[in-house]
Design brief:
Elements (H helix, E strand, L loop, with lengths): L21 H18 L4 H42 L2 E3 L7 H6 L15 E3 H6 L5 H29 L8 H8 L10 H16 L7 H16 L3 H4 L2 H20 L2 H12 L5 H21 L23 H31 L6 H16 L3 H4 L2 H9 L32 H24 L9 H25 L4 H4 L11 H17 L3 H11 L5 H18 L4 H9 L16 H4 L12 E2 L3 E2 H10 L4 E5 L7 E6 H14 L8 E3 L15 E2 L10 E3 L4 H11 L3 E6 L2 E7 H11 L11
Parallel strand pairs: 3-5, 7-8, 9-10
Antiparallel strand pairs: 1-2, 4-7, 5-6, 10-11
Helix pairs in contact: 2-7, 2-8, 2-10, 2-12, 5-7, 5-14, 6-23, 7-8, 8-10, 10-11, 10-12, 11-12, 11-21, 13-17, 13-18, 13-20, 13-22, 13-23, 14-17, 16-18, 17-18, 18-20, 20-22, 21-22
Membrane topology: Multi-pass membrane protein
InterPro entries: CBS_dom (IPR000644), CBS_dom_sf (IPR046342), Cl-channel_core (IPR014743), Cl_channel-5 (IPR002247), ClC (IPR001807)
Subcellular location: Cell membrane; Endosome membrane; Golgi apparatus membrane; Membrane
């Protein structure tokens, strides 16, 4: 009796912290598709089923776009309101943030548009005045108190309900998309807690952003919605195609950049990205951006808080300061990665990691205490970037726009270069202090047990450096117009230098230095600013920052965190240049015990169960006999366990002495002997094999391009050993003089 003619629940699935078999998953999907296509010719109902199966992918993308766009809108609105809550409350309706509160007011003037009677600071509510030292102390105290409360709620919710909701999530998503399984990482609890705690973490004023975690939120949406469709629920490889598209939707709503989102998914996170996934990513990103635009979270018909438009042309000489910003971005990126990884390693290996709540509260307290006295650190980082990107117009009341003779307009209403006033010099000092605080505090913030993105803090560091350089260049051009570098293109009374543009280029350079993004970064930045003419400065800065950062360390921040956590991620960008052979890497080595194998027709159920209980291997090669060692196929441990358990329950007479057959036909059973157990259906009859003299660079390429879990090594047709993905990763680490035992998972 072959009870395996019907599929058994659980066979073909994977254990937690294991790698999927891409080849097997793709093959199963092709078989399923072939079966549906063949049946569609038989009846109308089957044809309808075939059409709905083909359409299900697009429907899933629509749902992912709608859900991730809605959640992003909710997060934006809530974070804006809670950030303002630290400074005061709207008496006209506590649910209004500062800006909306004063929009609704009848007693507000254009000059004092941030001040209206409906908006009360905490000192006005508690001691009825906003003047004097005591009022300042009350506001200071309430600011720190709210920050600590938000941070405490965020870290407590993560610790108790969803430990996977911490961090940015992008290193883990990269690993999952490469075929690794982390159960619960993209589950419903993680989605709920990440959404709530992301709002709390951003509102607490810590040096972190919501953009990275929004990719995790979108991927959670994608994973949960996959369960509504059989095609994606039962196939891990198909599900990863959906998650690639969800990552694109996440970046689309984070920056209001649908094309940048698709390129980010392709360049940064995806491992397998066929053309079909490109189209679906584009559709998901489009729907997500459209949904967010419909919600209009910032009330300005834009998808991000720091949308700007520049119209002044840039000049060839300005490429020099842009490249200098690129060098700064590369240096900052390399410095940040080294120091942050060192701190995170210390957190993992010392007592510090056991007290996540205390760590978060201490960092929040330090951040809030240092941030309040400086208006540029007190405001949210998104608002700070918005202010730095802004090009000063006639109506700007910011200190950054406090120039002398600011109302002498030239042609077309554009403001000419003019001498800096007291406000600009004061703003420069405050921005320099802000830069130092952001550089230092971000190192300790990224990696704590709360949702924390890195895009916004990196952009803030670059934008501050860029604005400082931009104002310096502007003053240089004003006071030294007779210099050769200026007199050819900058005439008296002209608007030559745009400091906001320098801030934008600096932001791109620093983000590129930390993440090593290039194409997607430039596209995201020009989608943010709507300025196509600034692509060349952005490309120059992004490329320079990548070259400088790569010269100081090959890994971007996400790859560094993958290596720190020991995830089995095989980087597709790295070349393997060592002259080793498959026999140098395979198990067993020369003096090791022999390879554990199963024979095709001579082992009992008890023999197999003993091997399973005594070993921890994920699968076993099946051979003709122990003497010949001729390979028949490969069987997974999980499939064996499930099949034997199922046979004991459902097949009469199966006992420990029953013979297991992996052959096509089993011989007739003599009378009074227990029935045999046929398990050929769970046997992989085409496992990947290489010879013992195959160069390791070819083996590494096979693992990368086919996404293998394991590869068997033979010599003249006889089985010699096995190479797993973990063996390959350990060998690569060893060749790079790193600790091979840092690879923790299978």
């Amino acid at each position: 009796m072959d009870f395996l003619e019907e599929p058994i629940p659980g066979v073909g699935t994977y254990d937690d912290f294991n790698t999927i078999d891409w080849v097997r998953e793709k093959s199963r999907d092709r078989d399923r598709h072939r079966e549906i296509t063949n049946k569609s010719k038989e009846s109308t109902w089957a044809l309808i089923h075939s059409v709905s199966d083909a359409f299900s992918g697009w429907l899933l993308m629509l749902l992912i776009g709608l859900l991730s766009g809605s959640l992003a809108g909710l997060i934006d609105i809530s974070a804006h309101w809670m950030t303002d809550l630290k400074e005061g409350i709207c008496t006209g309706g506590f649910w209004f943030n500062h800006e909306h509160c004063c929009w609704n007011s009848d007693h507000v003037t254009f000059e004092d548009r941030d001040k209206c009677p409906e908006w009360n600071s905490w000192s006005q509510l508690i001691i009825s005045t906003d003047e004097g030292a005591f009022a300042y102390i009350v506001n200071y105290f309430m600011y720190v108190l709210w920050a600590l409360l938000f941070a405490f709620l965020a870290v407590s919710l993560v610790k108790v309900f969803a430990p996977y909701a911490c961090g940015s999530g992008i290193p883990e998503i990269k690993t999952i998309l490469s075929g690794f399984i982390i159960r619960g990482y993209l589950g419903k609890w993680t989605l709920v807690i990440k959404t709530i705690t992301l709002v709390l973490a951003v509102s607490s004023g810590l040096s972190l952003g919501k953009e990275g975690p929004l990719v995790h939120v979108a991927c959670c949406c994608g994973n949960i919605l996959c369960h509504c469709f059989n095609k994606y629920r039962k196939n891990e490889a198909k599900r990863r195609e959906v998650l690639s598209a969800a990552a694109a939707a996440g970046v689309s709503v984070a920056f209001g950049a649908p094309i940048g989102g698709v390129l980010f998914s392709l360049e940064e996170v995806s491992y397998y990205f066929p053309l079909k996934t490109l189209w679906r990513s584009f559709f998901a990103a489009l729907v997500a951006a459209f949904t967010l635009r419909s919600i209009n979270p910032f009330g300005n018909s834009r998808l991000v808080l720091f949308y700007v438009e520049f119209h002044t042309p840039w000049h060839l000489f300005e490429l020099v300061p842009f490249i200098l910003l690129g060098i700064f971005g590369g240096l900052w990126g390399a410095l940040f990665i080294r120091t942050n990884i060192a701190w995170c390693r210390k957190r993992k290996t010392t007592q510090l990691g056991k007290y996540p709540v205390i760590e978060v509260l201490v960092v929040t307290a330090i951040t809030a205490i240092l941030a309040f006295p400086n208006e540029y650190t007190r405001m949210s980082t998104s608002e700070l970037i918005s202010e730095l990107f802004n090009d000063c117009g006639l109506l700007d009341s910011s200190k950054l726009c406090d120039y002398k003779n600011r109302f002498n307009t030239s042609k077309g209403g554009e403001l000419p270069d003019r001498p800096a006033g007291v406000g600009v010099y004061s703003a420069m000092w405050q921005l320099a202090l802000t830069l130092i605080l952001k550089i230092v505090i971000t190192i300790f913030t990224f990696g704590m047990k709360i949702p924390s993105g890195l895009f916004i803090p990196s952009m803030a560091v670059g934008a501050i450096a860029g604005r400082l350089l931009g104002v310096g260049m502007e003053q240089l051009a004003y006071y030294h117009q007779d210099w050769t570098i200026f007199n050819s293109w900058c005439s008296q009374g002209a608007d030559c230098i745009t400091p906001g543009l320098y801030a934008m280029v600096g932001a791109a350079a620093c983000l590129g230095g930390v993440t090593r993004m290039t194409v997607s970064l430039v596209v995201i930045m020009f989608e943010l600013t709507g300025g196509l003419e600034y692509i060349v400065p952005l490309m120059a800065a992004a490329m320079t920052s990548k070259w400088v950062a790569d010269a100081l360390g090959r890994e971007g921040i996400y790859d560094a965190h993958i290596r720190l956590n020991g995830y089995p991620f095989l980087e597709a960008k790295e070349e393997f240049a060592h002259k080793t052979l498959a026999m140098d890497v395979m198990k067993p080595r020369r003096n090791d015990p022999l390879l554990t194998v199963l024979t095709q027709d001579s082992m009992t159920v008890e023999d197999v169960e003993t091997i399973i209980s005594e070993t921890t291997y994920s699968g076993f090669p099946v051979v003709v006999s122990r003497e010949s060692q001729r390979l028949v196929g490969f069987v997974l441990r999980r499939d064996l366990i499930i099949s034997i358990e199922n046979a004991r329950k459902k097949q009469d007479g199966v006992v420990s002495t029953s013979i297991i057959y992996f052959t096509e036909h089993s011989p007739p059973v003599p009378p009074y002997t227990p029935p045999t157990l046929k398990l050929r259906n769970i046997l992989d009859l085409s496992p990947f094999t290489v010879t013992d003299l195959t160069p390791m660079e070819i083996v590494v390429d096979i693992f990368r391009k086919l996404g293998l879990r394991q590869c068997l090594v033979t010599h003249n047709g006889r089985l010699l050993g096995i190479i797993t993905k973990k063996d390959v990763l350990k060998h690569i680490a060893q060749m790079a003089n790193q600790d091979p035992d840092s690879i923790l998972f299978n």
